[in-house]
Design a protein that fits this description.
Radius of gyration: 31 Å
Strand order of the largest sheet: 5-6-7-3-8-9
Distance between the termini: 47 Å
Number of strands: 18
């Protein structure tokens, strides 16, 4: 086995334990994922295995030191070579090439004579050709930092790889390269990700939930199928328990009715027969009645407890219903028309080699596509009127729209959930109806006074969609800018279902292929100037 966890327990200071007695083992060369809702401790588990945190109880053994890439790379104040942990070797290589005969340099280099060329080739392969080994890591973007450490896999060739949300800041081209890397690697690999395409490349799926971990012997699609089967079985079990509880209550009622009837009959005949016999029968009847009532009360109590336990196991998201009403605009109306548009920041070059000419019509579902740096977000700002084109014109008709970025910034506020919901209550829904809407969006009473800015990405997404439905404002156009980046798999499923039910116009920036496929894209607007020096709008099926 390459990774073994035995009886591992961990918790943060002054908080309930995240893990208690966790056991798992990963075979050498296996590729596994860890899935679970936000807050279950997936990232913490990876940090424990990587040695970034110490366990409270139990033990963790790895075949070799894991190569670990965290979700948020917080390294600062280093050069690229230092961050990649190759600075000593490169220094020794240069010293030897300059004529030094110190044995310590040869020991450090350890016959790794191609270290510098290997580093350069790895960085170039990940699109970092402009990044030198002496460059400061502080000058790199989040996506470039991720690509830098992914390049380190080729440099170090580790036998154990641990990746936490590696596709979060990667564009389409870089994601494809990561998929190839994972598929071709012989290393033992453990990944936390919400990228279903990546999860489906892995051999096994571990589900982390409620302080326990469960192994499913297949990729994400296999896991999802098994979970659906488990959910169906659980629903059937709940139906059976509910039927049994109704039967037990009916039986108890029948027993009570018979006892009441006997009591009335006994009261009617109380003066018949010897007094001592009448008293004996009365006491006997009362004892029997009490025992029967106690027995049926115990049966009902046990069945209620079993039913409550089963209901707690149900996935709460199955109860979530977030649906937009139909948009009011008729299909085919021109919402935006771009005529010979281009843009540049200050004295810089124009973003696009050719001017842009296109139309967006109501009812279309458009995927705005392109690698990082091709101007996708700038184009959105032009379409919404936040920016004016440097050349050409953007003509907008009268329509309503909402813009959802990957941080769901519209609900990043110190206001409480209930205060924000009341702010969107433009139709003066009664207080109980407002709270009911929050509850349907999985915000229970104990969360209503919570500040919105402390919510997770998935919670912010649910809250904003809930607020839109409270306001009964159905926009003509929804713009989504990398909406799945900070969501867990459950949140992605909720968002996907909601957007699929929306009948208005959709404009989406996303590198998540699965999400794009499932929401029913009809048009593609391609800004990838590295491969196409012009923007092309094309209908699905005519590509």
């Amino acid at each position: 086995m390459s990774i073994i966890l035995s009886g591992v327990s961990f918790g943060y200071y002054n908080q309930q334990p995240l893990f208690e007695n966790i056991n798992l083992s990963v075979r050498s060369g296996s590729k596994v994922s860890v899935v679970g809702n936000n807050g279950t401790g997936k990232s913490t588990l990876l940090k424990l295995i990587a040695g970034e945190l110490n366990v409270f109880e139990g033990s963790i053994r790895c075949l070799s030191t894991p190569y670990y890439i965290p979700q948020q790379i917080g390294i600062t104040g280093m050069t690229v070579s230092q961050a990649l942990n190759v600075s000593d070797k490169i220094e020794a290589f240069h010293a030897i090439c300059n004529g030094s005969d110190k044995y310590e340099y040869y020991d450090i280099l350890s016959d790794d004579w191609d270290i510098e060329s290997r580093c350069r080739a790895a960085l170039d392969a990940w699109g970092l050709s402009g990044v030198g080994m002496d460059a400061s890591i502080d000058s790199l973007s989040g996506g470039e930092k991720t690509k830098l450490f992914l390049a380190g896999i080729s440099i170090h060739n580790p036998s154990v790889i641990i990746l936490d949300e590696p596709t979060n800041h990667l564009d389409h081209t870089s994601r494809q390269k990561l998929y190839e890397l994972i598929s071709n690697s012989n290393a033992t690999t453990m990944i936390v990700s919400h990228d279903i395409t990546l999860l489906n490349l892995l051999d096994e799926t571990y589900e982390l939930s409620s302080r326990r971990i469960t192994l499913y012997g297949g990729n994400y699609d296999f896991y999802k199928t098994r979970k659906e089967e488990e959910q169906q079985a659980l629903n059937q079990q709940i139906d059976a328990e509910e039927a049994a509880l109704r039967s037990a209550r009916k039986k108890a009622q029948e027993v009570n009715e018979r006892q009441d009837k006997r009591s009335r009959q006994g009261e009617k005949n109380k003066n018949q027969g010897p007094r001592i016999a009448r008293q004996f029968l009365k006491n006997s009847g009362e004892n029997t009645e009490a025992k029967l009532k106690d027995k049926h009360a115990e049966i009902i109590s046990q069945k209620c407890q079993r039913l409550n336990d089963l209901r707690q196991k149900q996935n709460m998201t199955c109860e979530l219903k977030l649906n937009f009403d139909n948009a009011l605009l008729h299909n085919g109306k021109i919402l935006v028309s771009a005529r010979s548009v281009n843009f540049k920041y200050g004295e810089k070059e124009f973003l696009w080699q050719n001017v842009l000419d296109f139309e967006i019509r109501s009812g279309e579902r458009i995927h705005l596509k392109g690698d990082n740096g091709t101007g996708k977000t700038t184009l959105l700002r032009l379409l919404t009127g936040e920016l004016l084109p440097s050349v050409g014109e953007v003509i907008r008709s009268d329509f309503s729209f909402i813009y959802l970025d990957q941080e769901y910034s519209k609900v990043k506020t110190p206001k409480t959930l209930l205060e924000l919901a009341q702010e969107y209550n433009s139709h003066n829904l009664p207080d109980h109806e407002l709270k009911l809407r929050l509850h349907r969006a999985l915000f229970t009473k104990d969360m209503w006074d919570k500040p919105c800015h402390v919510l997770s990405g998935g919670e912010r997404m649910r809250l904003y969609l809930c607020c839109l439905m409270i306001s009964n404002h159905i926009p003509d156009l929804i713009i989504l800018d990398e909406p799945t980046n900070n969501l867990d798999l459950s949140g992605i499923n909720i968002l996907t279902s909601t957007i699929k039910n929306y009948t208005g116009t959709l404009l989406v920036i996303s590198h998540d292929n699965r999400f794009v496929e499932e929401i029913g894209i009809t048009n593609i607007m391609d800004l990838n100037i590295y491969y196409n020096p012009f923007v092309l709008m094309k209908k699905i099926g005519r590509i």
